[in-house]
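Format notes (please read before filing issues)

Several people have asked whether sequences and structure tokens are stored in separate files. They are not. Every record keeps both together, in the order shown below: the sequence lines, then the token lines. Line labels are part of the format and must not be stripped during preprocessing.
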Amino acid sequence: MQKKVDSLLEIKIFTDRSAIDRKVGVAAVMYRRGKSAPSRVLRYHLGSTAKYTSFKAEAVGAIMGIWMIRSEHIAGHLPISVLTDSQAFIK
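Then the structure lines:
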């Protein structure tokens, strides 16, 4: 069933955050159906782990994914999925 749903999606956007050396960054990556390389990648350095929590970073990543959808003018026109591994943000 999941493969059938995946095959119908025109756009998939993956978001995630990363922290290394006390610095936090986020990324959003857009893939179009049938393409193995990403069609768009956004990265952003937020700042120190003392200032930016994991939740805040994941939220920024999700916002970047939504911004991709808006800037491509595809909302409401194509089947889209935004994927994140942040349980806190999903709730």
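For reference, the curators noted about this record: Residues 54-72 form the longest helix (19 residues). The chain has a mean pLDDT of 86.
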